[in-house]
Amino acid sequence: MRRTIVVSAFAAGMLVLTWSRAAILPIDPSAPVTAEMVARGDPAAAMAGSPLALVGVWHLESETRDFGGYSALIALSDGSLLAGSDTGTLLGIDDPGTAGMSGRYPELAVTEGRDKRDADLEALTLDRASGTIWGAYESSNAIERYSPGLARLGRVTPVKMQRWRGNGGPEAMVRLADGRFLVLAEVSRRSAAEGHRAVLFAGDPTSGEQGVGFAFAAPGGMRPVDMAQLADGTVLVLLRSVEWYLPPRFGSAIAVLDPERIEAGGLWKPERVIPLPEAVPQENYEGLAVAAAGQTGAARLWLISDDNLSGLQRTLLVALDWRP
Hints:
Largest sheet: 5 strands, antiparallel
Mean pLDDT: 88
Number of helices: 1
Number of strands: 22
């Protein structure tokens, strides 16, 4: 009976999200992106003992069908951000967090033989030195490699990822500074205690690296949705929980981990789990990027939320300073 109630509540929540979708807009690559600041950081309100300090939160909007649903985020070497969506579209954000912040819609170059399931772009990562970008697709459990100009250079469905569930495949991916790649699945194994499926590749997966399997231990009720690496080698994993009320309620936190503690077949456990500052509005944050440290020496973290293309949710861009 309890299972029936939970499933029914979940279905009802999804129906509400579907019925409340934003109005269907035309595709307009020239549509401007507006940014309204909805929260500002207050140094006096910083949480004691937390390395996270809120800088600002902006509500992004645009009148085109290609806007929204962002689940992936990277910070490029020129200071701009690149977000990827559940529908396979991209959003470039120039001068993020400034009065001149603006958006644009770069496109992945169309290539023959592309899998039609390669639309649910859930993770992005890059090599800042070369400008090469990699994307992970949940529905097909695939990883693609792109040139700085977004031409597709390679595609692979790694053996270690082929049996991942279609709606719970690669959700978080990062290229480490030493050239290794980490990929985490959204859905855990049979039980939360077994952790989330994960693969560590010794190099570029699209170049034939097979990878070794391990598991990621997310805190109870939370799932990994994105990750990035700090300059000191620390890996940050963005975590998200959902409570299926009407509308849904989301919880977010950042897990701190040491990539040198990964063992083949082992369970990779966070050293610390840090909640977001209280002033950050509740939303479905699914994208995390780390930019270069500023003059203060703090690393700038960026989060972006997935609005599920729903009128009940917003696309929010969050700037946080990381001061360990």
